[in-house]
Amino acid sequence: MRRTTVITIVVALIAGLAGIALMPRVARLGAQTTGDADLAGAARAAVRDPSGHRGLAVALVENGRIRTAGLGDRDRTGQPVEPGTSFEIGSVTKALTGMLLADQAAAGVVRPDDPLGATWPTVTGPARDVTLAELASHRAGLPRLAPDGILGWARILWSNVSGGNPYAGQDTDAIRSAADRVTPDDDDRGEVHYSNLGPSVLGHALAAKAGVAYADLLRARLLQPLGMDATVIATHADDLPADRAHGGRASGRPIDTWSGVGYAPAGVGPWSTAEDLGRLAAATLAGTAPGADATTARFREDENNHIGYGWFTTRHGDHEVVWHNGATGGFRSYIGLERATGRAVVVLGNTDKGVEPIGLRLLGVPEKEAEEAAPVAPVWIGAGLAVAFTFLGGLSLLGTARRRELDRVTVVAAVVWAFAYLGLAHRMGDWSVVPVWLWPLGAGLSAAGATLAVTRWSALPMVDARVPWRRLLSVASSLLAAVLAVAAVSD
Q1: Which of 54, 182, 218, 280 has fewest C-beta within 10 Å?
Q2: 305 within 8 A of 130, measured Cβ to Cβ
Q3: Is 359 in a helix, a strand, or coil?
Q4: Residue 232 bridge partners (DSSP)
Q5: Could you tell me the end-to-end alpha-carbon distance of the chain, in angstroms, rounded to an integer?
Q6: pLDDT, tens digit, for every residue of 387-419?
Q7: How far apart are CA 329 and CA 159, in angstroms?
Q8: Taking the CA of residue 405 as centre, how many other CA atoms within 13 Å lie in the half-sphere pointing to its CB?
Q9: Mind telling me which InterPro entries this protein's record contains (predicted)?
Q10: Under a CB-based contact definition with an 8 Å cutoff, are residues 202 and 209 in contact?
Q11: pTM for the structure as a whole
């Protein structure tokens, strides 16, 4: 017994030391700087905590002048962020889709109060009666998403676990089909309830009315007139910009890019740069951008928040900011305009740590209001996953190895699960808020449990003779689940 204990402790220590080399590497804003040095310095000062960021691109518009800068690293190899580095911009695209509506309305092609069915006649379900303005302002009573049955929800769940693209395979027909299936919620219609489906339906409806694809309409009516040549919609991996930023979690986990056609008007697939979005912000402030009227606050959300066509207007103390933000699997974005001061800001980041407070500080919004503007994220979920998965497998394996009645297939399942849980903790846990040294402790705990199990291996039966079929079925299903877990966390 003493020899077994010593061996177990030694193996646990070795595994813990090895775990130090393998433990999660939390992203941290790099020291590199490009572009306007003064702006880079101001932006770095606006980053209160560099942990969780990897690289940032910023643009600041003052008195019609656009300045841009890059901070940190665009990828894990240490390449610097440039002002022209491309980032996924996510839901900032909703603001562009709103500008398309304002532009097409000004051109007399559509009217904001036109029903969807008149603009996109192939939509024949109940949603055909919602108006274009309601779609642009999240007031159509549509759900946030409309996955296609249980397989659609399973795909979204799997992508969250694996870090993949939850919108893969969703094309224009999928959005039209979703618009046919959903019934607007009468209780929500007329009130602001954020939706990805609504702006996607709007963008494809405007494109259908023009007889072109959404990406072509956006380029012809908005991007080309503003000289936003670096802004593209990646519908496939081949469309991804060269020398782009690589996205990831704040905890350091790399994340797949999002590409597709269906949800492109809502932010799946668009990439842009601080330089391009700076041009957009300057022209919108000046009122010369196509569809700039989309920023006009038309509908009330609450006392401090209103919305136009895709653009939100929020009061932060004495500052009234017109804005939109964006979030994809591994990127964050923010664009804000303040008409009273003639200033605008763009902040792009290549992790999932919010950049809204940085943008607001650059606009001069007081610290308290800027910090409160950060999206409320359920931090405890990521932290809980990190701690629970790190220790759950090891503790369970130790308990299994010490059981009086045990068989080999049960040991195999417990060992596989212990290390699968470690992998899940490594990939899914939010290590930007949990001490990373906990993970090597979990690795040592799992190794200790595995060592105890190995010392009993020769004396164990292959399977519990009393109920062999039930044990084999249970272990087989457990191993299948563990294999799926391992597949989810592998690169």
Answers
A1: 182
A2: no
A3: helix
A4: 271
A5: 40
A6: 998 998 889 888 888 888 887 878 888 888 888
A7: 10
A8: 6
A9: AmpC-like, Beta-lactam-related, Beta-lactam/transpept-like
A10: no
A11: 0.87
